[in-house]
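Chain and backbone:
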Amino acid sequence: MKRKTGRPMIPVKEVIGTSGRIILVEEETDRQAVERFNSEVSSARRGLVLSTTHPSKLGPRLEGGDVRWLSRAQGGLNPSKLDYDVHQEVSRFYDAGGGVVLLLGVEYLSFLNGFKLVARSIKRLGDRATTAGGALIAGLNPAAFDEKEVAVLEKAFDYVERSGVGARVIERLAPGQERRGWSYLVLDKGDYRNLRRLREDALCVSTVQPEKLRRWEDFRGKVLWLSESDEDGAVHPSKLRYEILQSTTRAIEGGCKTVFLDGLEHLIVYTEFPEVVNFLKSVTDACAQSGACLFASIDPRAVDKKQRTLLSRMFDRVIG
């Protein structure tokens, strides 16, 4: 379903192949935006993708073009340097002969850098595409933004397509269907049955005392207990940026195949939502690089609509 936004609306197939076009695709996931990009590069146009998703997961879905990973991890393009690293990367691409750029992960970029900086950066990228005879396609879920912010973003584009926007579909994932390097957001209300997916080479980061977890679900992996308790092995939930993140990444680098993050609701209380998002981005990136599988569980009632949308876009799949 397409929605008139005050910007010209024409069938996307008529846009494809034209130069200087700036297209915004509003959708739950990035599927439609990737299809638009593939339509461009399949007609022998050069392509560049800027995405918060690791290339190993995004690459197989692309029919051409190079991928630049927006991540602070090694090998990534720092997403906090939009006006420098990212803009220079795109400028070099357009200077080499035009082409089409696909920008994904706008929700996280806005969260990380602030909306105004992201809006200005997108306007600059769009202007650069126009003057270079290239094209820019950006995908986002408007539910992650205020209505005023959506209006500002849409104004920067020539064409806006709205495709199936709404709450992201919650899928079912049977044990054994997990994919290496993928991250799964688990929306539940305190159901620990997902621990049954974990093997002995797994790490569970939880607010629940380790012995309780083992009694409830016969879990035999390692447990990092988030608690103010003075007992050995307990880590204060406020130490998210240092001890918790370092312990988790060390486990992943040490060969841990699966990570289960539980108690995100309490982490938000002990720190703040932005710090939890940065923590999750670091862990999802580490898992993507190592091939480990990540499950992060949260009660959807603990976050508002914008926060839930942002979290959903940061993970490969949302399951329940």
